[in-house]
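Hey L., structure's done. Input below.
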Amino acid sequence: MASSEQLKQVTVIGSGNWRTAIAIHIAEKVRELKDKCDQKLIMQCKEETLENGKKITEVINKHHENAKYLPHERIPDNVVAEPAGSLCITNITHEVAEKVFCEATVGSHDDNHSEIVRELFDTPNFRLRFYPDIEIIEILGGLKNVIAMCAGFNIRAAVCFREMINFCRLHGKEFTAEVYLESCGFADLIASS
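Output:
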């Protein structure tokens, strides 16, 4: 039997219906490969509060069911759900590699997760800002790419900024306006344009 340092950790990133089905499918295989794999299969979940007020990770870990995305399908006991955050980078990749000053917005509901991410990423050249709403960070991260591709440098920043706000309002997402000033929003739009 291999030592714990040599065992591979298997992780499923995501907890939608497809990822849950994959976790169910490979959980038994992880058990069979006990000489190669850690027996715990981690499922990284976007933390959500279900209609009953419970967190999706709590329900998966306690009841072994993904009640939102794949109800009535038993998830094996060796699958452990963990909350995942979202990291939005506002600068171009080569600038990060060259250690040019940049900033990123991290979305996380879990202060422990935020602290680990801060310890890994935060340097004098790479500053982190934390925001508790993962979904709005992901929306803004995708939206700025669409606006930047369509607009280039021809549309004024104020118009782009206003359209980002209008887009999120159209989708009924409740948030505070200052999230647009975070690096996942307007700053990322400028960096991408």
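The CA atoms of residues 41 and 79 lie 5 Å apart. The radius of gyration is 20 Å.

-- N.
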